[in-house]
Amino acid sequence: MTAQKLVAEGLGTALLLIGVVGSGIMAQSLTDDIALALLANAIATGCTLYFIITILGPVSGAHFNPIVTLAFALKGEHPWRLVAGYIPVQIISGIAGVWLCHIMFDLSFIQTSSTARTGANQWVSEIFATFGLLLVIFGGLRSRPDTVPTLVAIYITGAYWFTSSTSFANPAVTVARAFTDTFAGINPAHVAAFIVAQFIGLAIALPMIRLLFSHNEDDQT
């Protein structure tokens, strides 16, 4: 059963990066209009999130993100023994997804990004994007669990546009995108700050989630 969960997390994270990076490569090859390329990238990412969460959620919980895994574990809703397996699988599979994109688009297999993504504005964006993602996930689970795939897909599609960082909100995605010098890349030197910001987003989100969405006896009054 554990192996099944790990395979689902690995497959889902790889597919997520294929959606993010592959659509970025395709968009960049078809247009010089950055806004149009970003729109295509955002839509493809949202579509990918919808189907991977829908089909793999019942198997592993469809985390595909170390921050999400840690959030569930810290809330006592995910076994800590699985955290040590989920996070490495998410990171390794994300990189594998990027490399598969390079093969599919006939690019150099091994790359590192030269795209600068740094500055206080982008770090604050990552804090907010991560906070919002967790709010959407746990709020959706509290109100309408069946809508979580749609909610996450819509949130990330929108967050591509309303955050200056384009809403990575995921350490595995951040690390993996350092391995591609394409539209979706991030300079490896800027990865650590993004991940720190994402953890700050987690730290801010957890008390808010407990305040807003914890079940208690007063819910019925």
UniProtKB/TrEMBL annotation:
<feature type="transmembrane region" description="Helical">
    <location>
        <begin position="189"/>
        <end position="213"/>
    </location>
</feature>
<dbReference type="InterPro" id="IPR000425">
    <property type="entry name" value="MIP"/>
</dbReference>
<keyword id="KW-0812">Transmembrane</keyword>
<feature type="transmembrane region" description="Helical">
    <location>
        <begin position="37"/>
        <end position="59"/>
    </location>
</feature>
<feature type="transmembrane region" description="Helical">
    <location>
        <begin position="120"/>
        <end position="141"/>
    </location>
</feature>
<dbReference type="Pfam" id="PF00230">
    <property type="entry name" value="MIP"/>
</dbReference>
<keyword id="KW-1133">Transmembrane helix</keyword>
<dbReference type="InterPro" id="IPR034294">
    <property type="entry name" value="Aquaporin_transptr"/>
</dbReference>
<dbReference type="GO" id="GO:0016020">
    <property type="term" value="C:membrane"/>
</dbReference>
<feature type="transmembrane region" description="Helical">
    <location>
        <begin position="148"/>
        <end position="169"/>
    </location>
</feature>
<dbReference type="GO" id="GO:0015267">
    <property type="term" value="F:channel activity"/>
</dbReference>
<protein>
    <submittedName>
        <fullName>Aquaporin Z</fullName>
    </submittedName>
</protein>
<feature type="transmembrane region" description="Helical">
    <location>
        <begin position="80"/>
        <end position="100"/>
    </location>
</feature>
<keyword id="KW-0472">Membrane</keyword>
<keyword id="KW-0813">Transport</keyword>
<dbReference type="InterPro" id="IPR023271">
    <property type="entry name" value="Aquaporin-like"/>
</dbReference>
<comment type="similarity">
    <text>Belongs to the MIP/aquaporin (TC 1.A.8) family.</text>
</comment>
